[in-house]
């Protein structure tokens, strides 16, 4: 197996036994990045020089027989909505063109403490609004399994970079599915942790009651390792929760005999592709063979989740994005003659179409006269959705559903119809509204495109999700498949 196809734990073992150096890993990864990036477009910014400097520190530690972190010297990609000191942070928006944060996000600080080698900042939908990465102000990212298809979104670059071997792991953010859906489309593991589990200090906020940062990895063990590094309380994020962080790799030691799995029937509704349904059903049979008890259940209010989300999310987003006014950060229109004109021109020129649509929707839903009818009503239905989950977790250890009703779709297919695009997150959005954790793992293919299985649990049950995910992974081969890019015709691959 080639270096760029390996997992973090495999590379860590090679580093420890001095079979390879961190510099060699970095060189291999960048040579692969340069070979495929023209077709992939996973990155907005590459941080090659900094990567080699970080690798050098790791090599010195190894030479001095120092203990190294499981993530030391492992190349990582970071979604460009996470603040990185001294490195451009654009949120894939013209609005933040040229913005260089003066500090690192909490998760970045934590990864640096673990001697991360950062490959670069990944492309995404503008301010993380979208499901295909087509809303990036820069360029769309491609799906390495078929370069005519989208990688999913909004963390498309983070998912694609790991799937394509341009990073060993990456970080994304998930407000309504943006880690799990692209993980599903790109055939990698993606975890949205419990709301409050990972500090969001330094994350450019989209919708503050929904956003969570989560990892993309090639397998479950790597997911547990990254979670060990990024989870935990942070006094700088008032929504982070003070609760001990377990060693997530311990979850991999347990089997799933007797574990009760509920399958919410609403998640197999109209619009689901038959290949996706078949793959989930086959996976459930496998989980049953491994000793789990599988039963159908119901989350009756989940059918309102999309409507609720598209009131709450734009409302929070319109408020969060008010700060981009041309005064403090990034882009500013230079032609304006007075302050109001400058605000208007800056925001009209700096934001893309989808961002403006959300700001308008949110401003409308929050305006007096409509607040009670829309925003407040949505909050009430959100509670009903949460209560469905609470009830289900009274009976089941975990719930299993598709991550997305479809596999990756072609570029342009949904760009003219926002509602079609929004439907792509129908299985992931209820989870953010409820604040619970959700894990997507590869569970099949349809026409060469990956299918994702979603495992859900009560708050702070990430270990249980990893336990179920690992039991499945150990008995399947989907996580071992690597894209060949051949359809896209990457030369020399
Ligand atoms: N696709 C959803 C949206 O456009 C989710 C985005 C996200 O999770 N960041 O809002």
Structure overview:
This protein is of the alpha/beta class and 493 residues long. It has a single domain (3-265, 393-492), classed as Amidase signature (AS) enzymes (Alpha-Beta Complex), CATH 3.90.1300. Helices cover 38% and strands 13% of the residues. The chain contains 15 helices and 11 strands. It has helices at residues 8-16, 22-40, 48-63, 106-113, 156-163, 180-186, 220-230, 274-289, 305-320, 339-350, 353-366, 372-395, 418-423, 429-434, 462-474; strands at 43-46, 75-79, 117-122, 169-174, 189-192, 212-217, 260-264, 293-297, 398-402, 438-446, 449-456. It has an 11-stranded mixed beta sheet with strand order 1-3-2-4-6-5-10-11-9-7-8, with helices on both faces. The longest helix is centred in the C-terminal third of the chain and has 24 residues, at 372-395. The radius of gyration is 21 Å and the shape is globular. The two termini are 14 Å apart. Residues 128-131, 154, 173-178, 206, 313, 425 line the site of glutamine. Glutamine is lined by residues 128-131, 154, 173-178, 206, 313, 425.
Radius of gyration: 21 Å
> Are there runs of 5+ residues with pLDDT below 50, and where?
486-493
User: Which CATH first-tier class would you pick?
Assistant: Alpha Beta
Question: Main sheet?
Answer: 11 strands, mixed
Distance N terminus to C terminus? 14 Å
CATH architecture: Alpha-Beta Complex
Task: Report the β-strand fraction as a percent range.
Answer: 5-15%
The total beta strand count reads 11
The averaged pLDDT comes out at 96
Helix proportion range: 25-40%
């Amino acid at each position: 197996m080639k270096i760029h196809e390996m997992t973090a734990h495999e590379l860590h073992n090679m580093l420890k036994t001095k079979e390879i150096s961190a510099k060699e890993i970095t060189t291999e990864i960048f040579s692969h990045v340069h070979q495929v990036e023209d077709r992939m477009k996973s990155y907005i910014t590459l941080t090659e020089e900094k990567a080699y400097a970080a690798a050098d520190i790791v090599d010195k530690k190894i030479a001095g027989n120092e203990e190294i972190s499981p993530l030391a010297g492992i190349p990582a990609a970071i979604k460009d909505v996470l603040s990185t000191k001294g490195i451009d942070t654009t949120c894939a928006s013209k609005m933040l063109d040229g913005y260089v944060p003066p500090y690192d996000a909490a998760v970045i600080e934590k990864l640096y403490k673990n001697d991360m080698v950062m490959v670069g900042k990944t492309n995404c939908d503008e301010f993380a609004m979208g499901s295909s990465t087509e809303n990036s102000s820069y360029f769309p990212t491609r799906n390495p399994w078929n370069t005519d298809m989208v990688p999913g979104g909004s963390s498309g670059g983070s998912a694609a970079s790991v799937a394509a071997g341009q990073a060993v792991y990456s970080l994304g953010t998930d407000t309504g599915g943006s880690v799990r859906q692209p993980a599903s489309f790109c055939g990698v593991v993606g975890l949205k942790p419990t709301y409050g589990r990972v500090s969001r200090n330094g994350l450019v906020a989209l919708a503050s009651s929904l956003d969570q940062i989560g990892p993309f990895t090639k397998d479950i063990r790597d997911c547990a390792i990254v979670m060990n590094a990024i989870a935990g309380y942070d006094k700088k994020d008032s929504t982070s929760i003070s609760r001990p962080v377990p060693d997530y790799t311990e979850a991999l030691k347990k089997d799933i005999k007797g574990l009760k799995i509920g399958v919410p029937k609403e998640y197999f509704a109209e619009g689901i592709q038959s290949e996706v349904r078949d793959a989930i059903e086959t996976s459930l049979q496998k989980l049953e063979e491994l000793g789990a008890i599988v039963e159908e259940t119901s989350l009756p209010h989940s059918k309102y989740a999309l409507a609720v989300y598209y009131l709450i999310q734009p409302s929070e987003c319109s408020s969060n994005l008010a700060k981009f006014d041309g005064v403090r950060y990034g882009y500013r229109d230079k032609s304006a003659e007075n302050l109001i004109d400058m605000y208007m021109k800056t925001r009209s020129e700096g934001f893309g179409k989808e961002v403006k649509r959300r700001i308008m929707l949110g401003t409308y839903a929050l305006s007096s006269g409509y607040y009670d009818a829309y925003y407040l009503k949505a909050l009430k239905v959100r509670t009903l959705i949460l209560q469905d989950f609470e009830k289900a977790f009274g009976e089941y250890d975990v719930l299993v559903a598709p991550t997305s009703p479809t596999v990756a779709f072609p570029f342009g297919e949904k760009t003219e119809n926002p509602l079609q695009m929004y439907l792509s997150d129908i299985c992931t959005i209820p989870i953010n509204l409820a604040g619970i954790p959700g894990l997507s793992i590869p569970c099949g293919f349809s026409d060469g495109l990956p299918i994702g299985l979603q495992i859900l649990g009560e708050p702070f049950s990430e270990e249980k999700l990893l336990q179920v995910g690992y039991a499945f992974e150990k008995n399947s081969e989907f996580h071992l498949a690597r894209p060949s890019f051949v359809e896209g015709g990457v030369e020399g691959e």
